[in-house]
Write a structure and sequence with these properties.
The chain is an alpha/beta fold. 27% of the residues lie in helices and 27% in strands. It has 13 helices and 15 strands. Bound molecules: zinc ion.
Length: 393
């Protein structure tokens, strides 16, 4: 319809008049959402500046100074950080139906459940991932019964390759890797063979393995030698025995070799045995910094040293990590680890409009390790709002 036909159609009847304001109103709102005046930090674009972020149709449409087009809704983000939606690659979000909604409030717009369940009950976790409002995916525990109080694979028969392969094969969309928990109270002396079996399952589907390291019976060097490009070491700050750093402060050679061939190293904050300030200090001083932060989240994290991902992201600021580097660890770096996050962790124009608003408060903050040790920091990130697929949550 050209303009003349449109006008004559409009003149022709009341029905056309009704539609005119609707059409104009839709045109008037160029954007669905406009986030105004925040400090936009997007390490994927090496951007750290005050910008407006415009969103339409669930995608980022512009990141510029002073965007003026009309928006259906505007958020005043002055004084806040505006960053890509946070990605948490080691959580136990899938253990409860309300998990995804809870982490969403912390700014987490993508999560990985890391080994809560094995082949026997993988369907429980996949069901939560399937109904999650944000992308959620699952690493299958090589121990077929999942996490057990007396050790997932203390009985080596539970590291059942055939059962795991069957479960992965039936859930290809949601199972994106294999988790092997290797600490002595989890796998005992079976650690190496458990990892070998996890790798057998993962490799046959071209998927990564994530190992839970720390206090293993086998030396860490022997274990990481089994890891391939794209695999992930979580709990990288675990104290001895078998830390990634030796007594004289040198990173274990096989660990350096693993990073060189493309193995990722993740924090995995957790609650017990995974991080101690003195070990963290030594590893940071050696220059072996994490690729990603992750929480090892579960529903009681608010009452532990974890609290939320932004809190975990704050813990290395006192060790020389910059704000931008900390944000990179929870956005662009995490996005590179799993294809499901491939177009996320960025505010690039055209990307899904997943955005986390954070407050970076200055003051005196106490941070906890897993051994009741505290350090005091001068800055802490706090969650201050989440936008998922262009919608304010
Ligand atoms: Zn975990």
């Amino acid at each position: 319809m050209n303009r003349r036909q449109f006008l004559s159609a409009a003149a022709a009847g009341a029905a056309a008049f009704v539609s005119v304001p609707t059409a104009f109103a839709r045109q008037a709102s160029k954007y669905d959402l406009l986030i105004k005046g925040g400090r936009v930090i997007d390490p994927s674009l090496r951007l750290d500046a005050v910008r407006d972020v415009a969103i339409a149709g669930g995608r980022i449409t512009a990141v510029e100074t002073n965007i003026t087009g009309a928006a259906a809704e505007t958020i005043d983000a002055r004084g806040k950080l505006v960053v890509p939606g946070l990605l948490d690659i080691h959580t136990h979000t899938g253990r409860s139906a309300d998990g995804p909604g809870l982490v969403l409030r912390d700014g987490v717009t993508g999560w990985i459940d890391a080994g809560s369940q094995g082949a026997d009950h993988i369907g429980d976790i996949v069901a939560v991932a399937r109904s999650s409002v944000q992308p959620g995916r699952v690493l299958i525990n090589i121990g077929r019964a999942g996490i057990l109080p007396d050790g997932d694979t203390m009985d080596l028969a539970r590291a059942d390759v055939a059962a795991a392969k069957d479960a992965v094969g039936k859930n290809r969309e949601y199972v994106v890797g294999v988790k092997a928990r290797l600490s002595r109270e989890v796998a005992g002396a079976n650690d190496y063979e458990v990892l070998r079996r996890a790798q057998e399952v993962a490799s046959s589907f071209n998927l990564p393995v994530m190992i839970h390291m720390g206090q293993t019976i086998s030396p860490i060097g022997k274990l990481v030698a089994l890891l391939k490009r794209g695999d992930i070491v979580t709990h990288m700050f675990a104290p001895p025995p078998n830390a990634i750093v030796d007594d004289s402060g040198h990173i274990v050679p096989e660990v350096l070799a693993a990073r060189r061939r493309g193995v990722w190293f993740d924090v995995g904050n957790g609650q017990t045995g995974h991080m101690r300030w003195d070990t963290i200090g030594t590893i940071m001083k050696a220059g072996f910094w994490p690729d990603t932060f992750s929480t090892d989240w579960n529903t009681n994290s608010k009452t532990t040293g974890v609290i939320d991902l932004p809190n975990c992201m704050s813990k290395l600021l006192g060790y020389g990590m910059t704000v931008s580097e900390a944000i990179a660890c929870a956005t662009v770096n995490a996005a590179r680890m799993f294809p499901v996050f491939g177009d996320r962790g960025t505010l690039n124009v055209g990307a899904p409009a997943d955005v986390a608003l954070l407050e970076l408060r200055e003051g005196t903050f106490e941070f906890l390790d897993n051994y009741k040790g505290t350090i005091t920091g001068k800055q802490r990130f706090f969650p201050a709002g989440t936008i998922l697929a262009g919608k304010k949550m």
